[in-house]
């Protein structure tokens, strides 16, 4: 009698329950039950309410601030390890703390590497994530990392818009590689913004490298936090003669007065994924789900089949 691969167990951290439900539905499985006990001082303890012994476990949770989201993932991983799960995969649509990927000045931590080591120490045997802030973060892990690209979600949508005179733009020099990759698939021109910062999240000066006159521009970035860079870039491009400016950003952190900036900007729309749940709705923000992408990759990982077709970039 042929051996039948047992179905995996899929669980959700509290910050990603809705996305996890959609991933489980797309996978064709039920979301496992987790009980969270909380103490009056804020400490919490997760508990799997079903056996995971010998099973492949997928734990879904983005680790955007607050730091409780990361702590929750670590506790879930540790619980699965101590419950004798055979394979434990941390599915992190958004890998938080990734902006601390190097020492850019003296006496600062490399937070991304610290998080990688914490995940491995807690019990993760594999990581699945999407659009890391820096590709080299994969090298911080000793375990396999499946780094997915939201381009597989965004490109079909951009093609459906049928925009003429399309130009892809990077809001900063660091994102130029990503912009060039999009332009290759869309056969479009590329422009780049050069910015100087006073400090984190505060832009002092921005210049445009390239011509956007008469163009429909799409800004490409991995995340949008305060929305200062994207909205300033959009306003600059309209000033330089662009017909329209859209932006795609995989992870919608949208902190501070980001929503207000987007509403008052020259952006036609901001297109994001549901890797992080929106704090509120906006007519200018379109959300594309990443549930099918993660469900497909999880299925391929579980059945030991190739996922290379998911890497468009």
From TrEMBL:
GO terms in the biological process aspect are: 5-phosphoribose 1-diphosphate biosynthetic process; purine nucleotide biosynthetic process; ribonucleoside monophosphate biosynthetic process
Q: Which UniProt keywords apply?
A: ATP-binding, Cytoplasm, Kinase, Magnesium, Metal-binding, Nucleotide biosynthesis, Nucleotide-binding, Transferase
What EC number(s) is this enzyme filed under?
2.7.6.1
Q: What class of enzyme is it?
A: transferase
SUPFAM superfamilies xref list: PRTase-like
Q: Which reaction does it catalyse?
A: D-ribose 5-phosphate + ATP = 5-phospho-alpha-D-ribose 1-diphosphate + AMP + H(+)
Q: Which PANTHER family match?
A: RIBOSE-PHOSPHATE DIPHOSPHOKINASE FAMILY MEMBER, RIBOSE-PHOSPHATE PYROPHOSPHOKINASE 1, CHLOROPLASTIC
Cellular component (GO) terms are: cytoplasm; ribose phosphate diphosphokinase complex
> Entry's CDD domains?
PRTases_typeI
Report domain Ribose-phosphate pyrophosphokinase N-terminal positions.
Answer: 9-123
Q: What is the lineage of its organism?
A: Bacteria, Pseudomonadati, Bacteroidota, Flavobacteriia, Flavobacteriales
Q: What is this protein called?
A: ribose-phosphate diphosphokinase
Q: Which residues form a coiled coil?
A: none
* Top-level taxon in the UniProt lineage: Bacteria
This entry's Gene Ontology molecular function terms read: ATP binding; kinase activity; magnesium ion binding; ribose phosphate diphosphokinase activity
């Amino acid at each position: 009698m042929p051996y039948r691969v047992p179905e995996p167990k899929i669980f959700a951290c509290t910050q990603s329950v809705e996305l996890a439900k959609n991933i489980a539905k797309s996978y064709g499985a039920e979301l496992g039950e987790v009980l969270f006990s909380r103490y009056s001082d804020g400490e919490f303890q997760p508990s799997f309410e079903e056996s995971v012994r010998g099973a492949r476990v997928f734990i879904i949770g983005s680790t955007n601030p607050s730091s409780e989201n990361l702590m929750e993932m670590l506790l879930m991983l540790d619980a699965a390890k101590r419950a004798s799960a055979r394979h434990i995969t941390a599915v992190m649509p958004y890998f938080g703390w990734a902006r601390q990927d190097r020492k850019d000045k003296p006496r600062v931590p490399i937070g991304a590497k610290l998080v990688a080591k914490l995940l491995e120490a807690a019990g993760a045997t594999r990581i699945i994530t999407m659009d890391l802030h820096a590709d080299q973060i994969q090298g911080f892990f000793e375990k396999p990392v499946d780094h997915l690209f939201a381009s597989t979600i965004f490109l079909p949508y951009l093609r459906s818009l049928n925009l003429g005179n399309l130009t892809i733009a990077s809001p900063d020099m660091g994102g130029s590689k990503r912009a060039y990759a999009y332009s290759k698939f869309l056969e479009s021109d590329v422009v780049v913004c050069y910015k100087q910062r006073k400090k984190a999240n505060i832009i002092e000066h921005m210049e445009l490298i390239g011509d956007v006159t008469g163009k429909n521009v799409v800004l490409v970035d991995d995340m949008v936090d305060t929305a200062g860079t994207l909205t300033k870039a959009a306003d600059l491009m309209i000033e330089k003669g662009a017909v329209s400016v859209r932006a795609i950003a995989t992870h919608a952190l949208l902190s501070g007065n980001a929503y207000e900036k987007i509403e008052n900007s020259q952006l036609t729309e901001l297109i994001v994924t549901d890797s992080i749940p929106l704090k509120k709705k906006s007519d200018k923000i379109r959300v594309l789900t990443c549930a099918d992408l993660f469900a497909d990759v999880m299925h391929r990982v579980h059945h030991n089949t190739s996922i290379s077709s998911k890497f468009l970039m």
